[in-house]
Design goal:
The protein is built from two helices and five strands. By secondary structure, it is an alpha+beta fold.
Length: 80
């Protein structure tokens, strides 16, 4: 299924892009993350602290993906 994946802050620096279209073979956020970590192994260092969202709603790794959804991957929120 096709998705739109957004990367924020340092994750954008690691991937070299702020967003990408992705064809996901899996059905959950966890499946998608494994595919993304395969393409960008350096992102795995952020795995335990990633904030995840589907269509602007925060989700956990067991959340179901759906065609044409927008997935956001964000590092932890930092104050300033």
């Amino acid at each position: 299924m096709k998705l739109r994946v957004l990367f924020f802050s340092v994750l954008r620096d690691i991937t070299g892009c702020s967003e990408t279209e992705w064809t996901c073979a899996g059905t959950t956020m966890a499946d998608l993350l494994e595919e993304i970590f395969t393409r960008w192994p350096a992102l795995r260092a952020w795995e335990s602290s990633l904030l995840l969202a589907i269509d602007c709603a925060y989700v956990k790794r067991d959340a179901a993906l759906h065609a044409d959804c927008e997935v956001a991957l964000m590092p932890p929120v930092q104050g300033g």
